[in-house]
Amino acid sequence: MSVVTLAIPSKGRLMEATAELLAKAGFTIDRLGADRGYRGLLRGLDGVEIAFLSASEIAQNLRDGKVDLGVTGQDLLTEKIPPDDKAVQLLVRLGFGPADVVVAVPECWLDVATMADLDEIAESFYERHGRRLRVATKYHNLTRRFFAGKGVTGYRIVESLGATEGAPAAGIAEIIVDITTTGSTLAANSLKILDDGVILRSCAVLAGRSERLDDPRARRLIEVLSAIT
Amino acid sequence: MAGKSSAERSSLEHQNAALMAVFERAGFDHVAPDIIQPADIFLERSGEDIRARTFVFTDPSGAEMCLRPDLTVPACRYHLSHAENPAAERRYCYLGPAFRFPDELLSPQEFTQAGLEWFGAPEAIAAEARVLKLTISALEAAGLSRYRVSFGDLGLFSALLEDTEMPERWRQRLRHHFWRPHAFRELLDSFCAGRGAKRTSVSPLVDRAAAGDALAIVEAEIESRRLPLVGGRELPEIAARLANKAADRQETPLERAKADALNAYLAIAGEASSIDAQFAAIAGGQRFMGARDYYARRLYEMEELGLNPRRFHFAAGFGRELEYYTGFTFQIEADTPHGPVAVAGGGRYDNLLSDMGSPVAVPAVGCAIHTDRLKAVLA
Fold first, then answer.
1. What is the total count of domains within chain A?
2. CATH of the domain at A216
3. 3-state DSSP percent of chain A in helix, strand and coil, to 5
4. B16 with B114: CB under 8 angstroms?
5. Which of A134, B27, B290, B377 has its CA 20 to 30 A from that of B61?
6. A47 shares a domain with A17
7. Which domain, by its residues, includes A37?
8. For the stretch A177-209, what's the b/e string if a residue is b when 16 or more beta carbons lie within 10 angstroms of its beta carbon?
């Protein structure tokens, strides 16, 4: 039977927390080759290979079938994998790395509290300025799905790959969709979250490809991690 | 599939020649609007839902361009750049590729669309019936024999709304939400609730605006909280909306019976030629009466053209997902062993040319046929 590949974040808080969790489950990670190798083995569970990837690549690799299991943020998973895609499943919410994906608008918009308000001002904004409201985000799919669900259509997404919270002040966008843990970065940038603007309450998750879930090693990993989270 | 075989190509072309022959014989000028279009017209007009499915790219000068996701807007652009007086009557037909990223139904990313657009038609009712007739004739000429026709009429809804007593700004908001049944119902409920409407995080400020000068309150708030002015909206704009929210609260709530009448209208559906009995049960006023008369005259025109409206289906909520239509809307579905498949649709869209920069209003009726889907159905 071919090895089961488990992708975990290659660096940062998410990597440390994942390593801690695996240790708590009785497994240790052996990095192969040089200290900074990108492959490893899971000691304590034979036949499981580790792939160290950046958190944002893990969902895509799961989707493409290049890895069987992966630990990544639910935000990144939901962004990359459509809700109707049966090939990849969310298996265990691991609890660490909590963060919300939210819709935030300038605090000076004193008349705006809800997505319905946003829809209304979208219309008058278009009439006054001849262009659509712009939403800066790296979460294109989450944004489109959420806005469509709320019936808001009169907007455009502008790509933002970092420091999204600065986009309104920089005049690049009026609205942002971004991840936040405490809301302090938003407040520091004079942005407020809409009353009904929480798109997703995210945390780190274990996800896997459906066709590999019957593999005994995959099952064991899921059982152990479910039991301790 | 990476393309069509010689046989597939030739059979599609053969089918489409039959469609176009019907349009051309009826006096529609066969034009070829550009495939590559400025992106803004589509994206600013349609919003993010279409943008997500449009192939957008940047030309060397930095301008945002796209592959047309549909041919109606390119035909309108063609008309505006060629016609001396945009409101003068012109009839166009076209056949060509359109491009969309596949959606979840895995529709093809390039497909051939046939269609016609009739601008400035002097007799509105006759033009609507005639466009439906031409669409059906073209489909039949291509070999389609089993199909169903459904239509809706935004004119009836607009008339009923005009007849319903409420502030004009409420009507505007309801019109804006016509496309979204859920939001529409919620909005209607909030108008009935009056002071009992749901409170939000801006309600305390609305309370204050109700008792004072909204602009002064907004300015003081911005000043005291040292809020930077970002986001491109000016203070008077923000204050005016707060004042509107405050006014909404003092407004006499919408009578429940009137809200129910609007909802009841939107639930009407049935056989098109006898639907007036259901219209009659709705408590509308003069304008609604006028719209019923318009509907009846359109049915008469259809019959004059040899159509049989007793076979057609009317649904008041039909077309709620097609944002640019303003009146009559229709769809034709082929009957297949796997269920109905939409092969053509169309209707009246009187605001699109003005929105695209025409200095005068241009009444417009058109239709589009999804020729690859039609081919698949007929295969």
1. 2
2. 3.40.190.10
3. 35, 30, 30
4. yes
5. A134
6. yes
7. 4-98+203-228
8. bbbbeeeebbeebbbbbbbbbebbebbbbbbbb
Inform me whether the C-beta atom of residue A198 falls under 8 Å from chain B C-beta atoms.
no
Same domain, A92 and A8: yes
| Chain A closest-CA separation from residue B200 CA (Å) | 6
Nearest CB partner across the interface for A110, out of B43, B48, B205 = B205
Beta-carbon separation of B228 and A129 below 8 A? no
pLDDT at A132: 85
Tell whether A155 is within 8 A of chain B (Cβ): yes
By Cβ distance, the residue of B205, B230, B232 closest to A190 is B230
User: What residue of A is the nearest CA neighbor of B201?
Assistant: A113
The answer to whether the beta carbons of residues A19 and A29 sit under 8 Å apart is yes
Give the tokens for residue A217: 């090693």
**Encoded tokens for B160:** 């009923």
Residues in chain A closer than 8 A to B323 (CB atoms): 153
pLDDT digit of tens for each residue in chain B (379 aa)?
Answer: 688 999 999 999 999 999 999 999 999 999 999 999 998 877 766 666 677 788 988 888 888 899 999 999 999 999 999 999 999 999 999 999 999 887 655 567 899 999 999 999 999 999 999 999 999 999 999 999 999 999 999 999 999 999 999 998 899 888 887 877 887 888 899 899 876 678 899 999 999 998 889 999 999 999 999 999 999 899 999 999 999 999 888 888 999 999 999 999 999 999 999 999 999 999 889 999 999 999 999 999 999 999 999 999 999 988 655 567 889 999 999 999 989 999 999 999 998 999 888 999 999 999 999 999 999 999 8
Task: Count interface pairs A-B at CB distance under 8 A.
Answer: 107
Flag if A82 and B104 touch (Cβ within 8 Å): yes
Cα(A147)–Cα(A126) distance, integer angstroms? 17
What distance in Å separates the CA atoms of residue A211 and residue A205, rounded to the nearest whole number? 18
Distance from B245 to chain A by nearest Cα, in Å?
8
Closest residue on chain A to B241 (Cα): A111
Window 105-134 of A: residues touching B by CB (8 A cutoff) are: 105-114, 116-117, 119-121, 123-126, 128-132
Helix (DSSP H) and strand (DSSP E) numbers for chain B: 16, 12
Q: Is A24 on the interface with B (CB under 8 A)?
A: no
pLDDT at A113 over 90: yes
- Which domains are delineated in chain B? 6-160+263-378 (3.30.930.10), 165-253 (no CATH)
